[in-house]
Design goal:
Bound molecules: guanosine-5'-diphosphate, magnesium ion
Shape: elongated
Largest sheet: 6 strands, mixed
Radius of gyration: 39 Å
Strand content: 25-35%
Number of helices: 19
Structural class: alpha+beta
Distance between the termini: 81 Å
């Protein structure tokens, strides 16, 4: 069954609350003060099943002092029931409520011409004409105008029929979207604990699920769900919903907060918006303070105009709103702005970027970006987001900016990756990087390697970590890794374990260096196991020590020489003899060998015997056992 939220609208005393009671049997005024004074102050609720539709009614106050409560109720509605008393016709809050519905993007409505029992047929016809003129060119252009009387019951069945027909034409909400419930009430029920209510504007919620309370990012568990006063397993978009929560005091939750699917929405103090001024508003200057209403929340904000000093009545512009308090805003959300003082509705609009950056003159790409956010296809939007994020964009940021589902993100990512407009630098979690930043990284990596070879002709390549560090923090490790792999695949760089080098980069020695290399090798080869110190060998070369040290490094890297201790280096041919000697010893004299026997076997002194035995232990050719070694 379809669920539709109907909001009343209209001037005070035009019969909104009475009409809701006549339609549903429930009088929506619930506060003591409302009953005493006979006026609606806050939102009231009632339910009706009619023509195969579940209607949830939100009755709003008509009094000009309580428009802010009206706004909290109207933000989630599918259909407006505009109430106009036949004996009074159009009054100030008829206009203001109508403007608000238009600015909030309400698409359909039914007009009830109430108190029809108080006027004659000619007057009724006159008011009808006045109303037709009033709604000309608006979303209510073809809305049915139904004369009714709550007193006599006249017209009520026609009104129900008109509501049923309008409901059929309303597109069902997408229940597959992320759950979001802007909260309008929070209270405690004995034996149940905290209950919050609101209009479920997207997705669905069920008992047992985890939800996030925003602002504040608190994760809570749903104990139970009610709609239309009945306990249900779950509720979906388009239903008035009460949620019983555990783990939170009802006093910690206020109207304006939001229950949402965990991790999908973010609270913000700054948003870029499309702003529309009412024709009746005054000129709006850059940096004007306003009251800002979005969802059920209300706060104070400052409007910054981009490239304009003021906005004329009836004009539209892209602007930034800076808020005093955090609100939960998503792409496409509607909002209302009211003049700071006296408080009247002056305009409204739509959120384009809920996570807007601080407005700066330097940011020349912002207008084009917001244009894309407003009108672009998904892939264009994702590309625009990626192009403004040098670090790359994570999936959760895409969701917070756009509200897209995983499959929608995946298809936009796939399309852009195929076109090489973005690169997927990590799959889990998903991180994408714009091609322009990716290419920058590739160019930098090649440049750094080029420079490294130039400055270090005797080193085979640059250690990976050193290369990573040279890029700084503006490059994610994931981006570095992906760019490096790509350059490797394209054979622009060679990845050799922990070393990165240019293809064909060979260490070229000058004749002098080649001679030095030969000398070093010979010195160790001749020495056998009684090697001289490294210092001594290098000192004999006619070359400064830094360069000589590098040549030694080449010999060590090529495993011509082997470093046994920091001070002791042996020629590989000398060490190669040891396993054979040990095996022979084992055969003739047993598997155990002491230090003196080892000295004798190898013809070395104690100075060398101990480091060599430790080296053999490390090589697992021997194992220490007390003062002796076991030959393995
Ligand atoms: N004669 C007559 N009076 C009505 C009708 N509907 C409402 N009223 C009266 O108008 C007054 C205001 O109604 P109410 O529903 O509180 O108006 P609201 O402020 O728009 O909610 C009350 O005294 C109602 O009894 C109607 O159809 N006929
Ligand atoms: Mg009322």
């Amino acid at each position: 069954m379809k669920s539709i939220i109907v909001g009343t609208a209209g001037h005070i005393d035009h019969g909104k609350s009475t009409l809701i009671e006549a339609l549903t049997g429930t009088h929506p005024d619930r506060l003591e003060e409302e009953k005493r004074r006979g006026i609606t102050i806050d939102l009231g609720f009632a339910f009706l099943e009619e023509s195969g539709v579940r209607f949830g009614f939100v009755d709003v106050p008509g009094h000009e002092r309580f428009v802010k409560n009206m706004l909290a109720g109207t933000s989630g509605i599918d259909l407006v029931l505009l109430v106009i008393a036949a004996d009074e016709a159009i009054k100030p809050q008829t206009r203001e409520h109508f403007d608000i519905c238009r600015l909030l993007g309400v698409k359909r409505g039914v007009i009830a011409l109430t108190k029809s029992d108080l006027v004659d047929a000619d007057s009724l016809e006159l008011v009808r004409l006045e109303i037709e003129e009033f709604v000309k060119g608006s979303f209510l252009l073809n809305a049915p105008i139904v004369p009714v009387s709550a007193t006599t019951g006249a017209g009520l069945s026609q009104l129900k029929q008109a509501l049923g027909l309008a409901a059929k034409e309303i597109e069902g909400r997408e229940t597959g979207r992320y759950f979001r419930l802007p909260i309008d009430r929070s209270f405690a029920i004995k034996g149940f604990g905290t209950v919050v209510t609101g209009t479920l504007i997207s997705g669905h919620v069920a008992a047992g699920e985890e939800v996030e309370l925003l602002p504040g990012e608190q994760i809570l568990r749903v104990r139970g769900v009610e709609t239309a006063g009945k306990s249900v397993r779950g509720a979906e978009a388009g239903q008035r919903t009460a949620v019983n929560l555990s783990g939170v005091e009802h006093t910690a939750i206020r109207r304006g907060m939001v229950l949402a699917a965990p991790g999908r929405f973010r609270a913000t103090r700054r948003a870029d918006v499309r702003l529309e001024m009412l024709p009746t508003a005054q000129r709006l200057k850059h940096r004007t303070q306003v009251h800002f209403h979005l969802g059920t929340s209300e706060t104070i904000g400052e409007l910054l105009l981009y490239g304009k000093s003021e906005l004329a009545p009836g004009e539209q512009a892209v602007a930034q709103i800076r808020l005093r308090d955090e609100v939960v805003a998503a792409h496409g959300d509607r909002f209302i702005v009211r003049q700071f003082s006296p408080v009247i509705t002056i305009g409204g609009g739509m959120v384009l970027d809920p996570l807007a950056r601080r407005a700066t003159r330097k940011d020349t790409g912002r207008m084009a970006f917001l244009e894309t956010m407003e009108r672009g296809e998904r892939a264009e939007i994702l590309r625009a987001i990626a192009d403004r994020n040098i670090l790359g964009v994570r999936a959760e940021e895409i969701v917070a900016r756009t509200g897209w589902q995983s499959a929608e993100i995946a298809s936009a990512v796939a399309e852009l990756a195929r076109a090489k407009a973005i690169h997927i630098v990590s799959n889990d979690p998903l991180i994408v990087l714009s091609d322009k930043f990716f290419m920058d990284i590739c160019a930098k990596l090649q440049e750094r390697i080029e420079k490294f070879h130039k400055e270090n002709p005797l080193l085979p390549g640059m250690p990976r970590e050193e290369l990573r560090a040279s890029l700084g923090r503006r490059v994610r490790t994931e981006s570095f890794r992906t760019a490096l792999e790509e350059l490797g695949r394209q054979k622009k760089l060679v990845l050799q374990g922990e070393l990165i080098k240019k293809p064909g980069a060979e260490i070229t020695l000058t004749p002098e260096e080649a001679r030095a290399k030969e000398q070093i090798e010979q010195a160790f080869a001749k020495a056998g196991l009684a090697v001289p110190s490294v210092k001594e060998v290098l000192a004999q070369l006619a070359m400064e020590s830094r360069r000589a040290e590098k040549i030694l490094q080449i010999l060590l890297r090529d495993k011509v020489l082997v470093r046994v201790t920091p001070e002791l280096v042996f020629h590989q041919s000398a060490l190669e003899r040891l396993p054979g000697l040990l095996q022979k010893y084992k055969k003739t004299r047993g598997e155990r060998i002491g230090v003196p026997a080892f000295k004798e076997l190898t013809g070395s002194t104690r100075k060398y015997a101990i480091p060599l035995l430790e080296y053999l232990d490390r090589q697992r050719l021997t194992r220490r056992a007390g003062d002796e070694r076991v030959i393995l």
